[in-house]
Specification:
Elements: E1 3-6, H1 12-21, E2 25-29, H2 40-48, E3 55-61, H3 65-74, E4 79-83, H4 88-95, E5 100-104, E6 121-125, H5 138-141, E7 150-151, H6 160-167, E8 171-174, E9 179-181, E10 184-185, H7 187-204
Parallel strand pairs: 1-2, 1-8, 2-3, 3-4, 4-5, 5-6, 6-7, 7-8
Antiparallel strand pairs: 9-10
Helix pairs in contact: 1-2, 1-7, 6-7
Bound molecules: ligand LARABZUK.
Enzyme class: isomerase
Protein name: N-(5'-phosphoribosyl)anthranilate isomerase
GO molecular function: phosphoribosylanthranilate isomerase activity
Amino acid sequence: MIRVKVCGTTSVPDAVLSAEAGADALGFIFAPVSRRRVTAAVARDAGLSVGPSVARVGVFMDQGLDEVLRLSESARMSSVQLHGPLSSLYVEQVAAYYPVLRVLRPADLAEAAVWKDHPAVTLMLDAPAPGSGHALDWAALRPAFPPGAWLAGGLGPDNVAQAMQVLAPAGVDAVSHLELRPGVKNRDAVLRFVQTARAATAASYPQ
Ligand SMILES: O=C(O)c1ccccc1NCC(=O)[C@H](O)[C@H](O)COP(=O)(O)O
């Protein structure tokens, strides 16, 4: 079954909204460049306000190993999402502590082979500018889309079913098209995103 992640969670009410909508994972962005950046304290409170069945994903970009591990620990994250050009050693070191969503841009797809059989690393394909709301060219990506990878980049309630039909990702992730403004969720969009992804699972994937 498809895994659905709602990213850019910045408050307890938005965490509860996404969990009640049926999201499998909530993203908490610690990258300094983000307009949705949260502190460890806010992420911890929001993450702990939902049940343990909902994954709490700490999102990082170009940050040092110590910072990633320290923030993930103090915010009680259950997994870590890594953006940016990173060495394999760095990703391995994080994966020794947390399940990792390693984010690749289409131009970086050669790195996918490195993580093919790694038990703690799952790939996610995303647009070159994370959190920008820009969609990838799914048809162009199809021949090289790694089996078992997740998809992000410009997804929302109105296009997630089509993206799933083209690429059959193992998970989908979104933020921009689920917001009223950066860091504040649009209730209707979150509900429709999760429901549409669930319904599209039945249509796009072999049972
Ligand atoms: O969303 C951000 O502001 C952000 C900034 C820096 C690194 C990662 C960021 N977001 C990570 C995500 O997981 C987003 O959901 C993903 O990039 C898709 O974003 P969107 O295209 O806006 O749906």
